[in-house]
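Translate structure to sequence.
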């Protein structure tokens, strides 16, 4: 089977047979494809990257890290692939895993490595904006409001590039609002939340609920400010 066929069968098994069967199949296919196509580093890495994502979603973080690191190891073996979208995707997953488990220094290391790749390889601006936003989110989680806001501002500036990415614009504004709240600036946070909510409401559909949440939260923050005044 090709990598695409393996992943399609894995998705079908996950939907029809549950996690245990899907895990067994994907684990076996990672080993089988290692033996069948040792020269296909990108394909082998894609399978381990998928396995890492499976384990992360299941809360098996040590297994997730091992699978992601195996994917990274494969791509690190080629000078060409070290600056590839495939390696950036693996590094991003590792960064997200480390952020999830509170390993903020390691998360920043990996998201910064993604940024270095994107500085050299042309990618859609929404991907670059998402990378910068991820760095801001790590700083926010770590309680470093000033650093977080600067990166969210950077993500917003990139997302505004035509064609504008309203989802990332709203996300960046929401991150900036959280940073303002962390510093105790409720009024500033409320203003940013209204702007974020407007973007999500304009997107509509599945994003409308988030838009209304942002605007309701802005109302609450402004209400608290009026009460204290």
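Result:
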């Amino acid at each position: 089977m090709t990598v695409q066929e393996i992943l399609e069968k894995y998705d079908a098994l996950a939907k029809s047979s549950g996690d245990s069967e899907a895990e067994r199949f994907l684990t076996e296919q990672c080993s089988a494809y290692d033996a069948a196509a040792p020269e296909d580093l990108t394909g082998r890495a894609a399978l381990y990257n998928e396995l890492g994502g499976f384990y992360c979603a299941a809360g098996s973080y040590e297994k997730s890290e091992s699978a992601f690191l195996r994917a990274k190891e494969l791509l690190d073996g080629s000078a060409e692939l070290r600056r590839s979208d495939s390696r950036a995707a693996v590094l991003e997953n590792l960064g997200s895993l480390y952020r999830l488990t509170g390993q903020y220094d390691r998360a920043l290391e990996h998201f910064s490595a993604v940024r270095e790749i994107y500085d050299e390889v042309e990618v859609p601006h929404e991907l670059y904006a998402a990378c910068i936003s991820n760095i801001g989110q790590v700083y926010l989680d770590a309680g470093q409001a000033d650093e977080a806001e600067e990166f969210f501002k950077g993500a917003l500036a990139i997302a505004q590039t035509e064609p504008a990415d309203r989802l990332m614009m709203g996300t960046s504004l929401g991150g900036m609002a959280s940073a303002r709240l962390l510093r105790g600036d409720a009024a500033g946070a409320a203003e940013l939340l209204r702007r974020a909510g407007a973007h999500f409401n304009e997107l509509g559909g599945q994003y409308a609920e988030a838009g209304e949440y942002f605007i309701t939260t802005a109302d609450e923050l402004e209400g608290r400010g009026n009460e204290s005044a």
